[in-house]
Design goal:
The structure is a single chain. This protein has 2 domains: about 50 residues, Arc Repressor Mutant, subunit A (Orthogonal Bundle), CATH 1.10.10.60; about 150 residues, Tetracycline Repressor, domain 2, CATH 1.10.357. It contains 10 helices and no strands. Helix 4 packs across helix 6. The radius of gyration is 20 Å and the shape is elongated. Helix content is about 75%, strand content about 0%. With about 200 residues, the chain is mainly alpha-helical. The N and C termini lie far apart (about 70 Å).
């Protein structure tokens, strides 16, 4: 089998796995179901992936890398740390809305249900937090943001955005509220939180 065919087969497996994972969930996810999707034997999948968790980890890694690439681009376009945070926030939202399947996969599985996410992959996954942390540190260095623990603040930033998108994507937003207005207000409140904290700490000195 040529390298091109091998790559094509692997891509078919990954796409089928993505479909099964999103439709069946992790607990009902199996290599046999993936094999049926693409009319091949489950044994053939083992030629490319060690087990089902290896395959799920690959799906997660692909989605995370795609998101992080977009966030890095957004961070490079902002003029100053506050503008960069806003740009990152809107790119996160855009990604979640445009690539909902990818976004769901990032947050679909929990560590207590599957094999621990490999350390080497987790280092790549952390890049998104580091992008935000670096921007916050830039703001601290410029005297525009007062955060003693930029890394922890970065995780809070992510948690807030994820909460916003969880409401939107699960369609739990009150129908009387305009979705875009809700997103705009939420991002403004998140960003303002850094400004307000900075102002308060400055005034208390």
């Amino acid at each position: 089998m040529s390298e091109t065919k091998e790559l094509s087969l692997k891509e078919q497996i990954v796409e089928a796995a993505r479909n099964v994972l999103l439709s069946e969930g992790y607990r009902n996810f199996s290599l046999r179901k993936i094999a049926r999707e693409i009319d091949m034997s489950a044994t053939s999948i083992y030629l490319h992936f060690e087990n089902k968790d290896d395959l799920v980890h690959t799906l997660m890694e692909q989605s995370i890398e795609r998101l992080n690439t977009q966030l890095q681009q957004a961070a490079s376009e902002g003029d100053g740390p506050i503008a960069k945070l806003e740009s990152i926030a809107y790119e996160y939202v855009r990604f979640a809305l445009k690539f909902q399947r990818e976004y769901q996969i990032i947050h679909l599985t929990s560590s207590d249900e599957m094999t621990r996410y490999p350390k080497e992959k987790f280092r790549k996954a952390r890049k998104g937090y580091e992008i935000v942390s670096n921007v916050l540190q830039e703001g601290v260095n410029a005297g525009l943001i007062a955060e003693e623990k930029p890394r922890m603040a970065a995780y809070t930033f992510w948690a807030q955005l994820h909460g916003v998108m969880s409401v939107v994507l699960s369609k739990r937003l009150d129908t009387r509220i305009d979705q875009q207005e809700f997103i705009d207000e939420a991002i403004e409140h998140i960003i303002d939180g850094y400004k307000i904290r900075t102002a308060l700490q400055t005034n208390n000195k």
